[in-house]
Amino acid sequence: MTDSSSARTHEPVLIIEPGRSEKNYWSDLWRYRELFLILAWRDISVRYKQTIIGILWAIIRPFLTMVVFTVIFGRIAKLPSDGSAPYALLVFAAMLPWSLFSNALSESSNSLISNANLIGKVYFPRLIIPAATLVTAFIDFLISFFILIGMMLYYQFAPGWQIFLLPFFMIMALLASLGPGLWITALNVKYRDFRYIIPFVVQFGLYVSPVGFSSNVVPEQWRLIYSLNPIVGVIDGFRWCILGGNSPIYLPGFLLSLIITTFFLWLGISRFRKMERTFADLI
Amino acid sequence: MSDIVIKAESIGKKYVIGHQAERGGYTALRDVLMQNARTLWKKTKDMAKGKPIIQGDTMEEVWALKDVSFDILRGEAVGIIGRNGAGKSTLLKILSRITEPSTGRVTIKGRVASLLEVGTGFHPELSGRENIYLNGAILGMSRDEIRLKFNKIVSFAEVEKYLDTPVKRYSSGMYVRLAFAVAAHLDPEILLVDEVLAVGDATFQKKCLGKMGDVAKEGRTVLFVSHNMTAIKSLCSRAILLDKGQIGNVGETGRVVSAYLQEGTLSLMQQVWDDPATAIGNDKVRLHRVYVTPLNQQPTEPITVETSLQLAFEFWNNLPDAVLNFSVVLYSFEGVCILNTASQAKTCSIGLVCGSFVIPGNFLNDDTYTVRLLIVKDTSVPIIDVHNVLTFEVQDIERGSNWYGKWIGAVRPQFDWVLRTGHMLP
User: Fold this and answer.
1) pLDDT band at B22 (very low <50, low <70, confident <90, very high)
2) Is there a contact between A280 and B50 if contact means CB atoms under 8 Å apart?
3) CA B99, CA B93: separation in Å to the nearest integer?
4) What CATH class does B65-262 carry?
5) Given the DSSP bridges, would you call strands B367-377 and B322-331 parallel, antiparallel or unpaired?
6) B116 contacts chain A (CB < 8 A)
7) From CA B309, how far away is CA A222, in angstroms rounded?
8) pLDDT bucket at A8, cuts 50 / 70 / 90
9) Nearest-CA neighbor of A280 among A87, A123, A134, A74?
10) How far is CA B1 from CA A2, A164, B73, in A?
11) Residues of chain B contacting A11 with CB distance shorter than 8 Å
12) CATH 2.70.50.60 placement within chain B
């Protein structure tokens, strides 16, 4: 019947069938890029409405955590810094990717539930919703990045050429959160248990990941296993970029983190795609 | 080969629901623990496989839609009617790709926009201006398209002065006007609309109906779901009646609508139990007959909001000299309790007891009602409590006013209004 009724060939023909995996899924995703931007913009502009200090929250939270960690791990526990880098800078260079990762993870994993009204009423590639939350997390990241600049001026610490590779690690941090985020947000639609797990994972991860201390503290024979946590690679990368030669990157561990990140991203997308079709029935 | 833009070929949508099996006697803690352990194991297995969890012991498949086929031609305005739960909304959701059909296939030619709700995605904290862009993008408009139509949208909604106010400060009328205005300026080739006229005031509704009529006249295709027969008749040339998930009737709107209004399939207007040994009840009382009947009209005429209804109940009493009274609870289709009425108590000897009352016309709203009957001993102890003894439907009348929306409220009484010009008398 496709050619018998093709008087108007310019018209898109849409076929809806059970189990039909959208073959134009990715082009659809591109077609809805404006919705992606608008949802991201909505989340950002709503974020600090009705708060007094507004955007300052994005600065205060990581800054205070950094101060506490510097005091506890640097002063009280007397853990060594990387090379000649000030301990506060060592902590903050890890605070940045960690909060980028944890914000992106917690927001993307709650995103479908908090947009339930949209899912039940309009069609668009559902991947847009969790992806748009990454932008919000990234904006917060950019704001707190100014603290880093301020701190580097204060300590008169100049970064090396590695700083230009920083965008790569930012993307890696975002992708590391997107993979599990997609999976969890899809599971969250069916099993609301997962929304209680995430705050716990994030809190736990802050201490398990090398945020308050350098990963050089970890004994050599455990470092590869330690890098199974994909954030270890991201944090090491950030420190390498920001602290330059003081914090050389541990390459096997980094590659392992990269592989794990890619694996979770693949897993997240494929699980999400599989469950996506039933969202409207379950939410 | 005429110009078919939507071709649905035996589409179906299946949901699986679970039932809790009835367990006789008392439940032991051990049974509960065993039961929970077993379901936990099953749920974990389902989760690992990515299957939905279904609570309950036995599964039942429910077809919200079954074997629905139809063709929609280019430029047609088609109304979809049917009772609550007939599958109208499910059908629109399938056509707009929100949910997937379980069987069948739909071929759609052209750009589709669906309007299943006004103001989808409106954010209360954002201003009117911001929400126009947000809602427009959600409905599938591009930014340039919205920018181009922005002024038209604003003047259609009549909210010029409040464009930079957060919509949470809007009155509900303004909110709906703005939401509909965005939707009304969508330019799809095919528009799917679900009961969006149920809101807003009369003038605005008229404006919306006019706008939708224009859309249809411009040669675009409109599929319109509504409970409101007047709106359907004025907008649509053809109608599809859905009945329990299947197509009941298709054809010219006037014919389908009047056929639909005459049938009363959902109703359970009378129940009789002839044998006092097996009738519903217990060894204290057993029901004999329950019925609801319209007063002052032919039994074939539909029950409307103007009809007075008599509800009557008859039971066998096996308790010697018991002080008994009736208590009747009325629920709306959605299960909201509308009212509870009780008779006075009376000392009854063994044998048949009956009671009845009349719900006056111009009291109930249009809805489907279910009746729950209790018989109470000594005005305090219910000795029987039967849900859904009767079900009846009250239909809307063709109103004289220009307002087509659903009349809101649990009841719809007609009070003696006093209307005059000048000052209120002291």
Assistant:
1) very low
2) no
3) 6
4) alpha beta
5) antiparallel
6) yes
7) 81
8) very low
9) A123
10) 12, 63, 11
11) 109-110, 189
12) 270-394
Q: Cβ B126–A46 below 8 Å, yes or no?
A: yes
As a residue count, chain B comes to: 426
Between B296 and A231, whose confidence is greater? A231
ipTM of the complex: 0.84
* Confidence band for A99, pLDDT divided at 50, 70 and 90: very high
Which of B5, B72, B97, B192 should we substitute to test contact with A (largest number of A Cβ atoms within 10 Å)?
B97
Structure letter (DSSP) for residue A160: -
What pLDDT, on the 0 to 100 scale, is given for residue B334?
Answer: 67
Q: B261 near B302, Cβ under 8 Å?
A: yes
- Given an 8 Å threshold on Cβ–Cβ distance, is A12 in contact with B100? no
- pTM of structure: 0.71
Q: Inspect the interface and report whether the beta carbons of B98 and A280 lie closer than 8 Å.
A: yes
- Model confidence at B314, pLDDT cuts 50, 70, 90, reads very high
Mean of per-residue pLDDT scores for chain A: 87
* Per-residue 3-state assignment (H helix, E strand, C coil) for chain B: CCCEEEEEEEEEEEEEEEECCCCCCCCCHHHHHHHHHHHHHHHHHHHHHCCCCCCCCEEEEEEEEEEEEEEEECCCEEEEEECCCCCHHHHHHHHCCCCCCCEEEEEEECCEEEECCCCCCCCCCCEHHHHHHHHHHHCCCCHHHHHHHHHHHHHHHCCHHHCCCEHHHCCHHHHHHHHHHHHHCCCCCEEEEECCCCCCCHHHHHHHHHHHHHHHHCCCEEEEECCCHHHHHHHCCEEEEEECCEEEEEEEHHHHHHHHHHCCCCCECEEECCCCCCCCECCCEEEEEEEEEECCCCCCCCCECCCCEEEEEEEEECCCCEEEEEEEEEECCCCCEEEEEECCCEEECCEEEEEEEEECCCCECCEEEEEEEEEEECCCEEEEEEEEEEEEEEECCCCCCCCCCCCCCCECCCCCCCCCCCCCCC
Note the helical H segments in chain A: 25-31, 33-47, 57-69, 87-114, 116-121, 128-155, 166-190, 194-208, 223-226, 230-243, 251-276, 279-282
Interchain pair A281, B104: CB under 8 A: no
pLDDT at B209 exceeding the cut of 80: no
Which residue among A123, A190, A274 sits closest to B96, beta carbon to beta carbon? A123
DSSP state of A21: -
Distance from CA of B108 to the nearest CA of A (A): 5
Q: Which CATH entry fits the domain spanning B270-394: 3.10.20.600, 2.70.50.60, 2.60.40.1230, 3.50.50.60? A: 2.70.50.60
Query: B25: exposed, middle or buried (C-beta count within 10 Å: 0-12, 13-18, 19+)?
Result: exposed
B309 pLDDT above the threshold of 90? yes
Q: Looking at beta carbons, which pairs linking B94-98 to residues 24 or more positions away fall under 8 Å? A: B94/A16, B94/B11, B94/B13, B94/B65, B95/A16, B95/B6, B95/B8, B95/B192, B95/B223, B96/A122, B96/A123, B96/B192, B97/A14, B97/A16, B97/A123, B98/A119, B98/A120, B98/A121, B98/A122, B98/A123, B98/A280
